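Re: the pair you flagged

First of the two:
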Amino acid sequence: MKNHTKVLILAAGKGKRMKSTKPKVLHELAGKSMIMHIIDKCISSGLKDIYIVLGEHKQQILNIIKNTKVKVISQKKQLGTADAINSAKKQLGEFNGRLLILYGDMPLIKEETIKKIINNTYNSFSLVGFLAENPKGYGRIIKKGNQILVIEEKNANKEIKKVNLCYSGILCGPNKEIFKSLSKIQKDKISGEYLFTNIFNNLSERKKLIKILTYSEDELIGINDKKQLSYAEELLQERIKLFHLKNGVTLLSPNSIYISSNVKIDKDVVIEPNVFLGNNVVIKANVRVKSNSYIEDTYINSFSEVGPTCRIRKNTQIGKNVKVGNFVEIKNSQIGNNTKINHLAYIGDTVIGTNTNIGAGTITCNYDGIKKNKTTIGDNVFIGSNCSLIAPIKIGNKSFIAAGSTVSNNVDKNGFSIARAKQQIIKNGRSKFLKV
């Protein structure tokens, strides 16, 4: 059945109410743009033939969706939803299957809902609605005998405005019949646009069977401004956290934790308050992430402990039973099993072996003003407190770096390195040099 359904996503709107130079559908929820949320949901639902209608911000959106197989259609002028769909007539007009019409600013629709809409649509039309607590601004679904109509808010009288059964904008039905009805739509006298909702007048006149499918309002909200974007983020965060809680993750203060949509967390992981988990984070079983930590693009293996108050960023892999303590920053590095970086350190562009200790205040000096250089630290190495390792540099297995050293040359296996200025003690020097 899915192979006989094509999807048309409308994403040509200017999004003026967002008050942003960024196209509306590129604003992000849980670390992913709205348009990619809807595309990914279609793909995971088994839908392979996806088309998208774009307008004047076409190039910016193309930069985001370029790695998908979505086919792009241009709407030259924004003359309403019916005109946007009609822009696809050349590509879709002769298709004999079903057409599912979705919107790029409706990122909270669930995969199972898309499947239900398709499975409930055979030779009929499925009109998707919801019961709104506050229906203001939405088109109302009106039943008149065997007729089903949608009346836009701007065209509604007082009685119709009291109706709380609202139209989401989503429609699924026989493709050719949709385009046949589109050809009959006239320009709306009030808005000057071709309103897609007028299609239901024509379908009813032609006695086409229309079914109303209702789902949660929170799942079908469209996002038009920053307030709605913020509300949608709250809803999505609640959904993401509930998923992880059900899968055995402990969230000690869920409302203070942020989790991006593609984060993967195994059971028996504990996340403490005020933790930010950005894109591409994988956390294996029995890890504890302590408070106030910011982590992105990182793999953390089992039984490790991270934080409190650490920052771990892109391309970092942390092994098993590793301790990354407070005020530690790690970037683009691999940390071996059983290694400890307990506090106040910066590790960048570095490979560290197993069973190694990195002392407090240690930094890898990876940037020389032109390029980033690599540090390699072996197994069973002890690096004392307050050391500077000037990359590129290699520290061999079982070597020892004395506290306070600035190390610029490689250290061989079993080596001992100390690099400090000679200490001088001047008798009665305090009064001499400080003049006290």
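Second of the two:
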Amino acid sequence: MAKVKKGVDWETFGKLRGSEKRAYFTRDGNIFHVIMSQQFDRKFLDEICALATKVRGISKGNKGVLFLQSLLQGKRAMLYFVQPSTRTFLSFMAACQILGIHCSEVRDTSTSSEMKGESQEDTVRTFSSYVDLVVMRHYEAGFAERIAFLLNQTSRPVPVINAGSGKDQHPTQALLDIYTLHRSFENYGGIDGKRIAFVGDLKRGRTVRSLVYLLRNYEGVKLYFVAPQELQMGDDLKQYLREQKVRFEETDNLEEVVSSVDAVYMTRIQDEYDEAGESKHIDYSAYRFKKEYLKILPPNTIIMHPLPRREEIPVEIDDDKRAMYWRQVRNGMWVRVTLIATIFRKDKDIKEY
């Protein structure tokens, strides 16, 4: 793995592969920035899952709640969410509150000095002077990475967590998805060897991209990409899977796949990234999970969705025990609590509690 040194220029840094940037997102061998899924290995994933379960248990009693609140009492976080979000924003807000962190927020740049011509980089660097953690969601791919790179050059770098960057990555969603898979299959051999179908807008779905990157850490998994040709998985990620020797298939037959996989990961059409309304011309009807599919879905197969949903999953399916998307939401809060605690090296305190 290439060692990235402080002071490397942005152009050189930008040419590195995701796995080669990993060293730049750590401090003294520990996680610091959370920017992309490629920075996580199997050891980290196993630890974060085990620790999240421990945190959930601690939180069930008042003494445990007070313990968790004391871990980062006095720390401050900035939630810089300039792309629409409710679920992820509130999930991070709740995670910070559980750990005793005070939060500030920016959700509308029209009230900031960006309206006077200040660059977004200067805006975020200013905010970082007031806080100990920056969590950001941005419409531009790679923006969180650029901010992490910028802050690394300063005398007071603070951790940056990417809470969604354009069509590129959403690493904390991928971590909560891994945790959901982990909990669902912990009595069925774990994630290793599982068959997972990704359905819908795979080309522009950052949650899918991030989770696929993480799944290369598990032995014997096989992925199925179920999408219309116009929205199939990008060539860059398929090439990555070939290099990592991860098996995958492309198909447009959802009904056939549903009967033979361990997890079905549904997604909505990402038409917020349309440039000329092209999504309106794509027939998406074949990529909806029909209620009758429950009859052919194996008993231990789970249904996932990063939300929000539209018509991909009818509400009648919500009460089926295999529907995991509402549990994903809850899992997300606990994974983010665990991740933030780990960034500030409080994972040891949690383990010893």
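The chain has two domains: 10-169+331-352, 171-270+282-328.

-B.
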